[in-house]
Amino acid sequence: MTAFDRCRDELFSHILRCEVVGAQAEHQRDWFDDTMEYMAERYPSLTEKELAQIRNLGERYVQPVIQHNPEVGTRA
To answer: How many domains are contained in the chain?
Structure first.
């Protein structure tokens, strides 16, 4: 497992423990700013680009699910 993989997995774990999903956008942004600063210190071998990719994955992870199919019994 690479440092990238460990950092990504740790970020997802922090997201779940800190209940970031469903928080207001401003709070999520502040949380990600602080957490990614911590991750950069914890994983110094990662580049800025890799840390940005991990943050992007985390930000996508906390977004609400988009339903594409209408519910059964309703008309579109």
So the answer is: 1
**Taking the complete model, does pTM exceed 0.85, yes or no?**
no
8 Å CB contact between 3 and 46: yes
In a domain, 68, yes or no: no
Does residue 45 form part of some domain? yes
User: SS in 3 state form for 31-65?
Assistant: HHHHHHHHHHHHCCCCCHHHHHHHHHHHHHHCCCC
pLDDT in tens, 14-56: 999 998 988 898 999 999 999 999 999 999 999 999 999 999 9
- Boundaries of domain holding 25: 3-60
Instruction: Please say whether the beta carbons of 73 and 31 come within 8 A.
Output: no
Q: Is residue 14 part of a domain?
A: yes
